[in-house]
Amino acid sequence: MNLPLNIDFQQVLLHIFNSFLLFVILYFLLYKPVKSFIDKREDFYKEMDDKANEKLSDADRLLKEYNEKLSSVDKEIELKKAEANKILEAENSARIEKAREQADGIVAKAVAQAKIERDSIFSQANSEITDMVSSAAEKIVFSDTSEAFDKFLDNAEGSGKDE
Amino acid sequence: MSRKKRTRSIIIFSVIGAMLLAGIILTDGMYQKEETIQEIMLDAVLHESAKINLFGVVEVNPGLVSAFCVTAILFVFALIVRIFVIPKFTIIPGRFQLLLEQGVGLFDGLARSNSPHRNGFLGAYVFTAGAYIFMSTMFEMLGFQAVTTEGASVTLPAPLSDINGAIGLGVLSYTIILSGGIVGNGFKGLGNTLKDFSLPISMSFRLFGALLSGALVTELVYYYLSLSFVLPVFVGVMFTLLHALIQAYVLTMLTALFYGEVSEPSKKKN
User: Would you call B124 and A23 a contact, using CB atoms and an 8 Å cutoff?
Assistant: First the structure.
């Protein structure tokens, strides 16, 4: 069969066979190895990128955690400060109370002591007065009563003349 | 540039131009060709007169021999690269590694962008087709000689300037698109691909026409000795290089585009 332009089906098939052969050769010797290398490198960089992103997210998470911890530490410090202040205030008031109690005790003790001393002084003074009185009485009793009487009378006369 | 340098450059270029013109004028009509330009151009299109015996089995057009030569060259190149270069690939690529990766990455990217759903096999195919079209177009510049059945010497042409080679690649590309349609969309994909029944013809003849026009212009220029002083630098090298790049891009682009279109999963109607 004479086709226009000298088309020959046998040669067309031979050309297709040649192209198929070339496809097999280039696919296995060139395209596949080069592409697999490109893919490997892409995977390598993707993995590196993923790792970097993972580390970055870890760092972000840690930063967040530390910030949270820091803020909670501040709160805790405030809380502990308040607690310490409370304890200190309680201790102070207890001490003051104790000191007051001690002072009251001392005062009461001093008052009691003073009372005792006063009483003893009073009793001593009483006894001394009693002694003095008794001694005076004794002296009066046992001394010259006539002289005294005379003096009394003189005095009494002297007062009548004046009138 | 100083005035002195500019004057010197003008003088040098004028002398070279004058010498070339003198050569063109003096050598015009010096040589007589055995064939007329009409015969040469007709043979470039039809490949009727020059046949080569392939392994003593069948007489074929020189284009088919060229195709096998290109495959052999690419096979040797790929083998050397596979054995000596690829095992030494590094994460930070060198120049040659970068060139190879760019080549593979370019066609892989073309396949991915045009057929996002199914592109593994397509990438490999467009890489092969692109490499084949580029190398086979550049092959004609090597000027390999072969002996015809009549005992004459013939320069091996670009394989795709042979209509059989262009049809072969066009049909193969269409078959790949068809397979993508069937695998991706089943019966609907088959129907979608068969709907574009003119595709293998348009692809084949686009390739053939582009390559043939380049070959014809080159034959025309080379036929006249007077045109062979300065022009071949532009016509031979630049035209061939541009053809190689443009045709490799066009066919791979079209194949990837149609493959993506027919293999795209159809949206289910709610």
Answer: yes
